[in-house]
């Protein structure tokens, strides 16, 4: 227990506040904390590290002076060393969405000040894992038949009785490239199908193998699975990680799903592999984003495309804040928050540890 009521400040753009801060969850937070708000908006791309605007940093410094907890999201400036130094009482910094790489928080300054940094970006991991499962199933059912229906082609029963195009997921081997929170949830969703799961992730704790019933394996072995799902984040080491050599390891009629970042897969190699027609692709992430109008992937019968919508659900947006309230309730009880940005987590996301 902290012994006194927490003073919590929420700094973000007005639009973000309206979308993410639900009334019921705010009321739950207010049962054990006093909450204040700062409407603020740093210009530029909200998904990148915010640019430094001295006047906005000064506003944030003034806002944090008497806070125990600072929650930030889109619109907030970087929580810099200067901001942390201005907050003598600060014990927790929370990022609702977009800080998978520690871009909005000076991690070294937070660590030096003894401030815990919590990131609830994983709210979107749940719907992404559901969409990954859907794309696996669609690929196994050879989704080109959808194009045939739209084109008005005859759908004779005999065609499917003599040469069934569909396959089942049950009992197959699934390879996961990356084994973070999306992978954990996808593994749970795969349980009823009695699949074997192989995962490639140099940064995942090996204790997860027993805890979550997976086997870790080299990338080459994972790429040789019947079903491969790309879940790797975009970092300097993962960009272009899946090239022609890796795609050639896919067995015939394999299903390849990408719900992470398009740049992890070399675009030219992907287009060339898909053009051969010997594998099935479910692609929610693209390079570039949004997907190019003139990409040949749009016309390929063995490619199913979606516009990077895996994490965009009605339930996911308010859950970012709901998960943060859960974390602050744990902290208030004297329990460690679960979604801390640790050195291991930062290394896995391609960011320098604190």
Descriptive overview:
Helix 6 crosses helix 9. The chain has helices spanning 14-20, 23-29, 54-64, 81-85, 107-112, 125-140, 144-150, 157-162, 181-190, 208-212, 219-223, 244-247, 267-275, 316-332, 343-348; strands spanning 6-12, 33-39, 69-72, 92-95, 116-119, 173-177, 196-200, 215-216, 227-230, 254-258, 279-283, 303-305. 42% of the residues are buried. It folds into 2 domains: 6-120 and 314-348, NAD(P)-binding Rossmann-like Domain (Rossmann fold), CATH 3.40.50; 124-305, Rossmann fold, CATH 3.40.50. The protein is α/β, with parallel strands linked by helices and 354 residues long. The radius of gyration is 23 Å and the shape is elongated. The mean pLDDT is 93. The longest helix is centred in the C-terminal third of the chain and has 17 residues, at 316-332. The chain has 15 helices and 12 strands.
């Amino acid at each position: 227990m902290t012994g006194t009521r927490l003073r919590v400040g929420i700094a973000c753009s007005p639009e973000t506040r309206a979308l993410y801060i639900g009334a019921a969850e705010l009321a739950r937070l207010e049962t054990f904390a006093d909450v204040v708000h700062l409407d603020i908006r740093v210009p530029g791309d909200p998904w990148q590290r915010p640019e430094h605007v001295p006047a906005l940093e000064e506003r944030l410094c003034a806002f944090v002076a008497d806070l125990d907890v600072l929650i930030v999201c889109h619109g907030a400036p970087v929580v810099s060393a200067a901001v942390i130094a201005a907050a003598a009482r600060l014990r927790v910094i929370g990022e609702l969405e977009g800080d998978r790489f520690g871009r909005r928080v000076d991690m070294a300054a937070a660590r030096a000040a003894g401030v815990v940094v919590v990131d609830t970006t994983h709210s979107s991991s749940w719907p992404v894992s559901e969409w990954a499962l859907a794309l696996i199933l669609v690929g196994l059912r050879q989704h080109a038949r959808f194009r045939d229906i739209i084109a008005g082609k005859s759908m004779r029963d005999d065609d499917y009785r003599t040469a069934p195009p569909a396959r089942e997921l049950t009992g197959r081997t699934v390879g996961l490239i990356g084994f973070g929170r999306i992978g954990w949830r996808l593994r749970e969703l795969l349980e009823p199908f009695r699949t074997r799961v192989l995962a490639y992730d140099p940064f995942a704790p090996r204790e997860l193998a027993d805890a979550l019933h997976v086997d870790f394996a080299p990338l080459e072995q994972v790429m040789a699975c019947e079903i491969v799902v790309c879940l790797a984040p975009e970092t300097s080491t993962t960009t272009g990680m899946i090239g022609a050599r890796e795609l050639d390891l896919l067995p015939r009629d394999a299903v390849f799903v990408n719900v992470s970042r398009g740049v992890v897969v070399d675009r030219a190699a992907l287009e060339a592999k898909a053009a051969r027609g010997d594998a099935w692709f479910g692609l929610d992430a693209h390079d570039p984003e949004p997907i190019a109008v003139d990409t040949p992937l749009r016309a390929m019968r063995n490619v199913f495309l979606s516009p990077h919508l895996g994490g965009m659900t009605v339930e996911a947006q308010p859950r970012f804040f709901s998960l943060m309230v859960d974390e602050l309730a744990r902290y208030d009880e004297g329990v460690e928050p679960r979604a801390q940005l640790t050195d291991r987590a930062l290394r896995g996301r391609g960011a320098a540890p604190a």
